[in-house]
TrEMBL record:
The gene is rpe. GO terms for molecular function: D-ribulose-phosphate 3-epimerase activity. It catalyses: D-ribulose 5-phosphate = D-xylulose 5-phosphate. Pathway: Carbohydrate degradation. Binds 1 divalent metal cation per subunit. A divalent metal cation binds at H31, D33, H64, D173. This is Ribulose-phosphate 3-epimerase. Its EC number is 5.1.3.1. It comes from Pseudoclavibacter albus. It comes from the Bacteria. Pfam families: Ribul_P_3_epim. NCBIfam families: PRK05581.1-4, rpe. SUPFAM superfamilies: Ribulose-phoshate binding barrel (SSF51366). Gene3D superfamilies: Aldolase class I. Keywords: Carbohydrate metabolism, Isomerase, Metal-binding.
Length: 220
């Protein structure tokens, strides 16, 4: 698979989301960081906001739920017709049941790991998911430094998927730039979330630069 670039609109202009989504129309999906000020110390988008983003976006929405009790809330987000819904392994009580509900609503099911959560926390349930998100910063804020210490976990996930024949999209999220994307690609990531790196410049140019940097390092 060629590298997928999902810009995070956490770094976009919050007063102009429709216009900002138009600026990233060449990307594969728009990454939407939903934060509840409990699972992480930050508050972002609620359901009515995501509903409107879904209505006006020219590209699919990739939701990253950083919320407590995703078992209760995630299916409602999936029912909006978004492309994918990813919740955190640390927050869910019945992740496999929840993944089934997300898929039943027509969304891809994703599970995310904080930097300190080991791969073993999800290894046995990955067959129920379409994507695994390895956080490369502590969730909560954009603009943080890429944590290279998460790379062995990414490689472990990549090797596991290859060995077991699992079709799993492997995302990285946090601190992804043209300098760090190559390291993540070499360790097996195929989908790259980037917020500040895309929106701090001209978004279409930054998306293309990230694609090219990833392509030079893609791992087989
Ligand atoms: O989920 C998160 C942060 O919790 C991310 O999606 C950030 O929005 C990425 O921002 P950058 O690190 O690329 O600025
Ligand atoms: Co995110």
């Amino acid at each position: 698979m060629s590298a997928q670039i999902n810009p995070s609109i956490l770094a976009a202009d919050f007063a102009n989301f429709e216009r900002e989504l138009g600026h990233i129309a060449s990307a594969d999906a728009a990454h939407v960081d939903v934060m509840d000020n409990h699972f992480v110390p930050n508050l972002t988008f609620g359901q009515p906001m995501v509903e409107r983003l879904q209505a006006v976006s020219p590209i699919p929405l990739d939701l990253h739920l950083m919320i407590e009790d995703p078992d209760r809330w995630a299916p409602d987000f999936a029912a909006m017709g978004v492309w994918s819904v990813t919740f955190h392994a640390e927050a869910a009580t019945a992740p496999v049941t929840l993944a089934k509900k997300l898929r039943a609503e027509g969304a891809r099911a994703g599970i995310a790991l904080r930097p300190g959560t080991p791969f073993s926390a999800v290894e046995e349930i990955l067959g129920s998911f379409d994507q695994l998100l390895i956080m490369t910063v502590e969730p909560g804020f954009g603009g943080q430094r890429f944590m290279a210490e998460t790379m062995p976990k990414l490689r472990q996930a990549h090797e596991f998927a290859k060995r077991t024949g699992l079709e799993l999209q492997l995302q990285v999220d946090g601190g992804i730039t043209t300098d760090t994307i190559g390291i993540a690609a070499e360790h097996g990531a195929d989908t790259f979330v980037a917020g500040s790196a895309v929106f701090r410049g001209e978004p279409a140019e930054q998306i293309e630069a990230l694609r090219q940097a990833a392509a030079q390092h893609t791992h087989e």
